[in-house]
Amino acid sequence: xxxxxxxxxxxxxxxxxxxxxxxxxxxxxxxxxxxxxxxxxxxxxxxxxxxxxxxxxxxxxxxxxxxxxxxxxxxxxxxxxx
Length: 82
Prior knowledge:
Elements: H1 9-17, H2 24-30, H3 52-81
């Protein structure tokens, strides 16, 4: 018989990690330590769309896009001011 920790997972995660947010990818990204993310391509428990790996990847892409948008807006401001 398999145990289901689904409904208790948020409380357990907060207890063991002291992370504040429901978005564990955010807390993972801003925790100041060495990190490793591993994946099991045949994982039947955690869908890839909801995994920490996917959440962290999305955050990295969002941050990169935001930086790129800022650079482009600065460049267009320079062009307009010349």
